[in-house]
Give the backbone structure.
Amino acid sequence: MASSVSRKRIPDKEIKLLCLQSGRVCAFPNCGKSLVQEGTALDDPVVTGEIAHIVAYEPGGPRGDPNFPENERNKHTNLILLCGDHHKLIDSQLNTYSIPVLREMKKAHETRSSELNQSKSPETTASFIQDSLHSSLVAVSHLPAIVFSAPTDYSDRQENQVKEQICYPADPWELAPFLLKEGRLYTFHDLREAGNPFHLVTSNRDIQQIQTQTLWNSAEGKRRYQTLLNRALYKFTARLEIRYDPSHHRYFFPAGKEKKERSVLYRPLNQKQSKRKVAWPAKNKATGDTKGFWIHFASALKFYEVAPLQWCLSLRPERHFTSDGSTPLPPKQVGRRATSIKARMYNDLYLGEVHFWRDYLSQGKPQILLNFGNQSAIIDTSQLLSFNIEWPGVIEDTKPFKNQVATHDLFSYGEYLQALEGEDSYYTDLDDDEDGHINDEE
């Protein structure tokens, strides 16, 4: 055990070289925070800087790569000196702060530090570029205004039994997400209606209607609302023949019938329509022989509140790996393959996949409609959210990305209006108590 710890320790020489080249200042662009706090009359100086690996020492760590030579992992060339906040940031946002980005960040910072030490007056932003940051977020433009709740005899762990009793709507695109908590069922469906999907598992006494913004006032209420949205997404994607991988919290395209390679139609950035392969056996390019595993297009899809009263849907492209088109590969066989694919995926390719997911989920329309009967959630997929930034850029990653804007046609606009129709007046007849109860007349 002791020898393992010693092997992983960064040599003093490499630490000294890193610190000298960094000029005791955080390498993150425009941070400028000193990494040494001066001593006081009572205490000695304190080093506050933190050493971060660009390629993680452990293959399973942030930006880990088992193909990167082990004897290079603790060299100063693979290390970057940061303040604590930015160390945490780069290890939390791995898609944004990839290996090429951190290498360019380190190079730009150490170049500026070297020029300053030579008593020159360089432009500190000379190596920065003005760019548009296209996020993997699409805005949610409309959400259900009410969550209904009613007593149930089913416990929190009996969701499967409830699913067996649900009277699913005739329209397959009308979704029925629900949540069981503390002897009550929560849903976006109106539980007062006699034919609601949950009438067999709930009581028609003590039905509550909870205003959405009231629910959001507590962290637990917000979690429950988010859970209902994400469960609606699970049901919606199932209609599009997309499955959910609970182990990795991502959605993926399964193989075609009889475990055949699968392709789907979508609208790419430069064409009206095209086919894209979404599940296929990996093959050796030289020989055409299969490699013994399948690659599946996948994405992490999740609703987030990004600001007060502002929600977004996050689309984060991933990969799913199976041995035969259905059986997941063991975790030890996944990391290296996923890292290899991501290492070759520059900005334009990544955003191209984000566009694929927004186009496929919306079926080429400018919105995704989640239908809950008399309420709806509407996700605006007309364009990705973007921001103007100044940053070092990535070498060789200069291909532009066109943030294509989708527009309504007569049919999609009609669907949009139908989803909103009547919602404003629908609840005016409710006999509201301040606590969200509906008075029972019996």
Observations:
- The longest helix spans residues 219-239.
